[in-house]
Specification:
Immunoglobulin-like, 4-stranded antiparallel sheet, 675 residues, single chain
């Protein structure tokens, strides 16, 4: 009778034999960094590493508008110790592990107009990753991580968060004779944190599956599936934050094929379907189906052609649309001086309340030749279109148009004749709706509507926002339009360039009636640019542009001048001095531009291992209804010696828009010692 101890010994023996077989059949050339680990043992340590890190963060903000003023100051010290071990069970090719962790000590002081608070926290970072059968063609990894990363909230702001993530990923290679591979991943991440101007509270579950295969000589096929479920309560603490739930599924198929015995034809195809369900202040569903095909063929060494087709079918809770676009084109390089291209295109769009069919013919010719003192170039183009549109609604709805608002820079919306009363602006997570006049303002210049971030509002500098709005359809009509352009370009002695361009757009109404003005226009633009290096590595460059645009809705005249001077100082420093002037005078609007800016930059090495960069920029614009002023100082310093690294970033900014002011000082310093 076999005793219990004998059964245990036999079980261990059989397990050792099985593991030895797994390791033995691994290709010897695949051992990589583990090839020197020859001993098979229950447990082994491959490497031990770690780091010591000290970080200082400082953020000071002062806001003022008329008689209302407020301030917020936060200073944070972080000290982190992290120890990481790399080990294995039985053999690194069977199971290798990354295990590590360590404490993070955080001391914060917060002072604001309402009062002052402080806190001290002890946090812990932890990492566990188990990599199974890493040298086989079917490796799998399990991971769990608790970390406290810094989240960037603006062009300079950042703050500490707590993030918990866990999941599984892996791949299967060499399927079907080595031509096919499969990758998969599933995980969850919860992130929380807050700063002066932002709150992060996100719970994300994600999964992806990718199949890649190749066949014949170089044809490829990819099938990808992504799933993302997000529950968010993130936003600005200055506004109410609503909880949002967004579920998203994406299926995408990509292929690339070479056709013909000499592979002269290349066919690329993409089919993609996005299904999204949003539960927020307003619940919506989205079903977006997109197909693109691009066929290219080389007819000769100097001529090639293409055929493109695009189908976009979108079903939203409040609207439906379908766009079909087919284009056939030809590109020819007649000789080294002459080239031309032409194309015919048909675009058919149907959406709730508005249908349009467009047939387009266009072409471009370019000619260049060398002259005794430089290069002379001519180019011309035409664009003729026949359009039939039918409108059963006065306006068309647009959803989820995204823009990035940086500083107080004005950004145009994508469509003309926007109904400003329908504009709604929210953050990407759909947890907050921003208020016009507090967080942003809208500007109308002719047929174009623009959005501008207000510095005293709740939109962070550099934040991505989404905009919903309606735009007017211009009625039911059939019309022809013709656009032409012509330009002459002259390059002089490789350091100067001058050009003249003329553009014209004319519309002929065949039937029906426009509800908006026909915006025919003629534009004349001329410019000159030069760049030349003088003695002692001084380089001076400049550019002047003048544009005079005559149109029905909003004619304007603009002038722009840019000048910069750069030089090397003592071989290791680069000095840059630049200035810019931009003047735009709109005939029918008081939102003109009279902007002047200056910039001084210095970069180089303080000594062998230290990099230093400093620049100061000033901008002023008093052409519109609100005076705009910006002053920004930036400093970056990096130093490294063996395993010690130090980084310092600082920003001091003063922003004014009308009666609103925002002064900000931010400092980030980090010292790291790796071992």
């Amino acid at each position: 009778m076999v005793s219990r101890v004998d059964r245990q010994r036999a079980g261990k023996h059989y397990l050792s034999v099985a593991l030895a077989v797994i390791i033995t059949v691994l290709p010897s050339s695949s051992f990589g960094e583990y090839r020197n680990v020859l001993d098979i043992k229950p447990f082994g340590v491959l490497d031990v590493s770690g780091r010591l890190r000290t970080t200082y963060l400082f953020d000071d903000r002062e806001r003022g508008s008329g008689t209302s003023n407020s301030f917020e100051t936060r200073s944070t010290w972080e000290e982190e110790f992290f120890l990481l071990t790399q080990s294995f069970v039985y053999h690194p090719g069977f199971l290798n592990m990354d295990l590590g962790g360590g404490p993070v000590f955080v001391q914060q002081q917060f002072d604001s107009t309402p009062g002052e608070t402080s806190d001290n926290d002890t946090l812990f970072n932890f990492l566990a990753r188990f990599n199974f059968l890493e040298l086989k063609t079917y490796p799998v990894s399990l991971y769990y991580e608790r970390s406290h990363p810094s989240i960037t909230t603006s062009l300079a702001g950042r703050f500490l968060t707590e993030s918990d993530a866990y999941g599984i990923d892996g791949r299967i290679s060499d399927l079907l004779g080595g031509s096919t591979s499969v990758r998969f991943e599933a995980g969850s991440r919860v992130t929380q944190g807050s700063s002066l101007g932002s709150v992060v509270d996100d719970d994300r579950d994600s999964g992806s599956f990718l199949i890649e295969t190749s066949y014949r000589d170089s044809d490829r096929l990819e099938l990808k599936y992504d799933r993302l479920d997000t529950v968010s309560a993130s936003g600005s603490p200055g506004l109410p934050i609503f909880r949002s739930e967004i579920s998203q599924e994406i299926v995408e198929i990509r292929s690339r094929n070479w056709l013909g015995s000499d592979k002269r034809f290349e066919l690329s195809q993409v089919a993609r379907r996005l299904q999204q369900d949003t539960q927020a202040a307003t619940s919506t569903t989205l079903d977006d189906r997109n197909y693109r095909a691009d066929l290219r063929w080389k007819m000769s060494d100097r001529m090639r052609s293409y055929l493109r087709y695009r189908l976009l079918d979108t079903q939203h809770s409040f609207s439906e649309s379908e766009v079909q676009d087919v284009e056939l084109g030809l590109v020819r390089q007649a000789n080294k001086n002459l080239s031309f291209d032409s194309a015919i295109q048909h675009v058919s769009s149907e959406q709730t309340g508005f249908d349009r069919d467009m047939s387009i013919l266009r072409g471009t010719v370019n000619y260049t030749r060398d002259v005794g003192f430089g290069t002379l170039g001519f180019s011309g183009s035409f664009n003729g279109a026949r359009t039939d549109q039918e409108s059963s609604s006065t306006a068309v709805q647009v959803f989820d148009e995204s823009h990035i608002l940086t500083g107080t820079t004005i950004v145009d919306l994508a469509n003309e004749f926007v109904v400003t009363g329908t504009v709604a602006v929210s953050n990407v997570a759909r947890t907050q709706i921003f208020a016009e006049g507090i967080d942003y303002r809208l500007l109308e210049i002719g047929s174009v509507t623009s959005i501008q971030r207000l510095i005293g509002g709740n939109i962070s500098d550099g934040e991505t926002i989404v905009v919903d709005y309606s735009f007017e359809t211009s009625g039911t009509a059939a019309f022809d339009s013709l656009g032409t352009s012509f330009s002459v370009n002259l390059g002089i002695l490789k350091f100067m360039n001058a050009y003249v361009r003329f553009n014209s757009q004319d519309t002929n109404l065949r039937s029906g009636e426009f509800t908006n003005p026909i915006n025919d226009r003629d534009s004349l633009e001329l410019g000159v640019s030069a760049s030349n290096q003088f003695v002692n590595n001084w380089n001076l460059s400049g550019q002047y542009r003048h544009r005079d645009q005559k149109e029905e809705i909003s004619p304007f005249v603009s002038d722009t001048l840019d000048v910069s001077l750069t030089t090397n100082v003592r071989g290791r420093w680069k000095l840059t001095v630049a200035s810019s002037l931009s003047v735009v005078d709109f005939e029918n609007s008081n939102e003109d531009t009279n902007q002047i800016s200056y910039r001084l930059g210095l970069s180089g090495r303080l000594f062998q291992r230290a990099l230093f960069t400093y620049d100061v920029a000033y901008l002023s614009d008093d052409g519109g209804s609100l005076q705009r002023d910006q002053l920004r100082h930036r400093l970056r310093f990096q130093w490294a010696y063996r395993q010690v690294r130090f980084a310092l970033n600082a920003l001091v900014s003063e922003d004014k828009l009308g009666n609103s002011e925002n002064d900000n000082a931010q400092v980030s310093a980090q010292l790291t010692r790796a071992f």
